[in-house]
């Protein structure tokens, strides 16, 4: 399933099945604003903006935010969070790996969990460099999956693998993507810093996580046909009963919001 179709199908459940909450996003926004020494005139771009979880606090605080996303349904979810049309927010329905903006348009470009979907990283990074203003910031970020949820996911992947058909080779795509981002941007004149914007505890009951999987809230839930998925999920529910002892068992661990901050020297 193509990513735009997958995200469109889960747009209405996306936020509640992830582990970045709006209060945490507020704290991350504080960190980012301090990092980039933001002024009221600072402009932000997020390719792959989705439901706006990462930048909603910036919009509410009056900063100029532009977002582009391939899923119209995800963008609609973002709009529904705002009581009225915000003049400081511009949302574009389109390919987030292509940046239809003039040179030197933004002070800050933020990408979160999206570089893996870009077909040619060199071209995309050059485009980020092009649309950034002099001395601008490129923030490549991710929210690290809490280890307990990652272990839960790996258990399901093991079961799901029994129902999957062999996949065609992705070698040609990997060759295009195999570049060292930090080295590439350093050669373009950027300085790099690795930062942890926020760490927080995420807790979920096993039955809650199972309910997310029943909703097929994650990409791995779409790699097999419907019938195979439901069979795998039934087997996984039996596994969870045996492995965790109870579906009421609570899984808690630390999540992190990581940022690789690139600034032009």
Structure description:
This protein has a single domain, classed as Vaccinia Virus protein VP39 (Rossmann fold, 3-Layer(aba) Sandwich), CATH 3.40.50. Strands 3-2-1-4-5-7-6 form a seven-stranded mixed sheet. By secondary structure, the protein is α/β, with parallel strands linked by helices. It contains ten helices and seven strands. The model has no long low-confidence stretch (mean pLDDT 93).
SSE order and pairing:
Blueprint: H1 3-10, H2 22-35, E1 43-47, H3 56-60, E2 64-69, H4 72-80, E3 89-93, E4 106-112, H5 121-131, E5 132-144, H6 147-160, H7 171-177, H8 181-187, E6 190-205, H9 206-214, H10 226-244, E7 250-264
Parallel strand pairs: 1-2, 1-4, 2-3, 4-5
Antiparallel strand pairs: 5-7, 6-7
Overall geometry:
globular
Q: Strands of the largest sheet, in order across it?
A: 3-2-1-4-5-7-6
How does the major sheet shape up? 7 strands, mixed
Q: Total domains, how many?
A: 1
Question: How many E strands?
Answer: 7
* Count of individual helical segments: 10
Percent in strands: 25-35%
Helix content: 25-40%
Give the oligomeric state.
Answer: single chain
Order of helices and strands: HHEHEHEEHEHHHEHHE
CATH architecture: 3-Layer(aba) Sandwich
Low-confidence stretches: none
Nearest-integer average pLDDT: 93
Supply the CATH superfamily name.
Answer: Vaccinia Virus protein VP39
- Structural class per helix/strand content? alpha/beta
Give the C-alpha Rg: 20 Å
What is the terminal separation in angstroms?
41 Å
CATH topology: Rossmann fold
CATH level-1 class:
Alpha Beta
């Amino acid at each position: 399933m193509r990513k735009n179709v997958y995200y469109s199908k889960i747009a209405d459940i996306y936020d509640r099945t992830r582990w970045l909450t709006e209060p945490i996003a507020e704290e991350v926004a504080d960190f980012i604003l301090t990092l980039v020494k933001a002024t009221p005139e600072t402009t932000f771009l997020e390719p792959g903006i989705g439901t706006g979880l990462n930048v909603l606090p910036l919009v509410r605080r009056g900063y100029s935010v532009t977002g582009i996303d391939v899923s119209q349904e995800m963008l609609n979810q973002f709009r529904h969070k705002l009581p009225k049309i915000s003049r400081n927010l511009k949302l574009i329905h389109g390919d987030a790996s292509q940046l239809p903006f003039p040179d030197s348009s933004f002070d800050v470009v933020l990408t979160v969990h999206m570089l893996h979907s870009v077909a040619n990283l060199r071209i995309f990074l050059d485009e980020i460099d092009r649309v950034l203003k002099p001395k601008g910031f490129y923030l490549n970020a991710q929210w690290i999956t809490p280890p307990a949820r990652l272990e839960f996911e790996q258990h399901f992947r093991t079961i799901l693998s029994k129902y999957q058909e062999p996949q065609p080779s992705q070698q040609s795509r990997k060759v295009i993507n195999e570049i060292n981002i930090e080295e590439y941007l350093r050669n373009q004149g950027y300085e790099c810093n690795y930062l942890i914007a926020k760490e927080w505890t995420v807790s979920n009951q096993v039955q809650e996580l199972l309910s997310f999987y029943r909703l097929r809230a994650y990409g791995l839930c779409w790699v097999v046909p419907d019938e195979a998925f439901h069979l795998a999920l039934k087997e996984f529910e039996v596994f969870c009963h045996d492995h965790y002892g109870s579906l009421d068992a609570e899984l808690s661990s630390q999540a992190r919001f990581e940022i690789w901050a690139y600034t032009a020297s």
